[in-house]
Structures are given as C-alpha cells and as structure tokens.
Amino acid sequence: MNFQSVCVLGLGYIGLPTASTFATHGIRVVGVDVNQGIVDGLRGGQIHIYEPGLRSLVQDALQSGQLTVSSQVPEADAFVIAVPTPFHEDKSADLSYVISAAEMVLPSLRRGNLVVLESTSPPLTTLDVVRPILEKSGLVAGEDFHLAYSPERVLPGQILRELVENTRIIGGVTEASARAGRDLYATFVRGEIILTDATTAEMVKLMENTYRDVNIAIANEFSRLADRFGVDVWETIRLANRHPRVKILNPGPGVGGHCISVDPWFLVQAAPDLTPLIHTARDVNDSQPRFVLRMVQRGLGNLHGKTIAALGLAYKPDVDDLRESPAVEVIHLLVNAGATVQVFEPFKPDFVIPGATSHPSLDEAVAGADALLLLVGHQQLRELDPASVAGLTSARIAMDCVGGWSPQAWRAAGFTIHRLGVGKDPR
Hints:
With about 425 residues, this protein is an alpha/beta fold. The protein has helices at about 15-25, 35-45, 55-65, 95-105, 125-135, 160-165, 175-185, 200-230, 235-240, 265-270, 275-300, 325-335, 360-365, 380, 385-390, 405-410, and strands spanning about 5-10, 30, 65-70, 80, 115, 145-150, 170, 195, 305-310, 340-345, 355-360, 370-375, 395-400, 415-420.
C-alpha cells in the first residue's frame, strides 16, 4: 500500500518521535493530542519532552510543513494510536485512553484505511476492545479496513535511533492487515519487519518487559541477601557474571518507567492463576524503595530533623522520564518518615514532589544537608568529584543506591559511604 497521509494520536514519548519521523520521510502527518497545552506549545516551537535529537527533528518536521498538530482527528490513509495505558490502583489496565482514541478515529475512518495500535496493552485488546469500536462505522476490520498492533520497543535516550533500527513486530487481524502495517513502517524502518497476528504482537511486548522485570527482581533480592550476609552485592554480581552462562543485572531502588513497571501487571490481570512468578517479581521491585528507606534509617537513625539531599528523580539515567519512578517513591517514604528532603533532578529541575523541595542546582540541593542520597545514575551525578562536593556541604554521609560512586574516592574526601546491597560483616 502507498500511504500519503498519517494521523498519529498521542504526542508523548512515542507518538511525537514517531509522527516527526514519518514526516521527515515524506509522509504528510497530523499529530493529535487532547492536551491543548501540548498542541499550542508545539505550534509555538516548544518541545515538552527531553530526548536527544528530538527538538531538531520536530522543528525540521514542523518547518517543512509535513507535520502539523491538532486536537482534532482528520481523515487520513493511516491512523497510529500511541496513547498511554496506565493502570488502576488494583493494577488492572486503564484502557480509557485507548478507547477514547479509537472513538476519535471512528468518524474519520474510511474504506481502505489502516489503523495501528502501538500502545502497550493486555492480550486481546486489539481484537476485543479496538476492533468493536471501529466496526461501529459499519466497516469490517480485515475486510473493509486494515487493523494491526505494532508495539513500540525503544529505549528512552535512544528513541530516534531505535525507532529506525530496531526490529519491528506487526501483528494484523488478518495477514493483509499485517502486510499493510509493514508497508507503512517500511517508510522509515531499516530493521527487520516481522509479521504475525495481533495478539501475538501484544504478547511480545509484554513478555519482553516482564522478562526484564523478573531479572531485575532477582538482582534486587540479591542486594537484600548481600546486605544481610555482610557481603558486597556489586562485587558478588561481578564475580558471578564471570560464568559464561550467567548475566545478573544490577540492583537499584526499584523499577520504573511506563513499560517494565507496568506491563507485567497486564499479564497478571489477564491470567492471575498462571502468573505467580510474575506477580512476585512485581511485589519485590515495588517494595525495593522501602529497602532503600531502611538503608537510610540505618545510616542516619531517626529521620526527624534530618535533611537529605536526594540526587536524581528519573526512572533511569540520563532521561527526564519520571513515570513510575522508584526514586520518587523513595522521597515520599523519606518525607513520611520525617526527613526534610532537598531534591536535584538535572533533567527536570522544577518537578514538584509534595513535602520535598526541588532545587535547580546541585549546590542548592546539598547546602545544609546531613546526607547525600544518589537515587539515579545520571552521568553528571556519577562523575561528581567528592572533594568538590565536600566544599559545598557540611554533610559527610553519602548513600549510593545505584553503584555509581567509588567508595574509595568518597572515603578519601572525608565521607562515610553506605551502598545498597553492601552489608556489615556479621562475624
């Protein structure tokens, strides 16, 4: 199929890069978002997301006229739904954004169109949720229009490269729908494009992130065991990974982001009787911030009246994405335990956490602190010179949750250092 126009619904971390990439590869694109502030900002040249290279890509797409933004869905050859899929308090999937987006497409759907769902979704969402909505048009999916699921599989910080280079999975409600999806994404994808059915494609995305979550959970459990047994988990993992068939991941304060911390729950929701391991891994990773709290309490004692400089809020290093961030949960716990928390997040310095104070600079965040707490391994935080930091603060306690600081260097600068997963020898 030959696609001349595409409508991308949702201009977030996936939708905006996708829309801009289509536009810079010769397709006329309308990006749609229900947040009028995002639409107005983009029209004024303001980019609401930090991602390396994204600003110039979006600006090029807008200035070329190939990309326009709107709050209304126009007619188009193809529609790509890239809206969020958060979860409710009971961990069940919140599909309200997907449902709303499908309903927005409905008035503009025409015979021969392609609709692609990219939003991470529980199995059978494409068939049992999106298809019935679109078929209210009187058109039949797989016969009158094409319907497919194609999961985004990109890493924040590498989105623009991975959109183009990664393998793309496209699952159609029919083989013809899958081929139509292939024709659309072949516009810019240089990686392999693999065709399958829609439900298999949904499972692929969920399985990838669940696999990661389970492996992080065992690393986090190892950090707790090392703490109890009086060993250094970082050294122990390094030695265990010398085995040719072992690759243990690094522990940390928990698991965040909109994928790994969310997607496994969709499988648990869909089949709770079959997923005890997945459920347990989620419980382990969700409880890891409390393990960090206990580490801080062990180093500082009662936290009432103590001031902690918390460094980093993002869910992973060198991005501004704070969705489901365990660092944010750690700060909530510290505040509830009575600590005064001064926060520095270099990629989003104005982010507000109730009860804590955000600062635009490291100097302000560490001033007057009793302890420094490294929560995210941003490069600029990992590379801090401890001797220089010592000149900025009277704090002489440093706590490292991500294995980012050299204990020898920080001790040499006069700090007592506590590290996640490093226990005292009980003998």
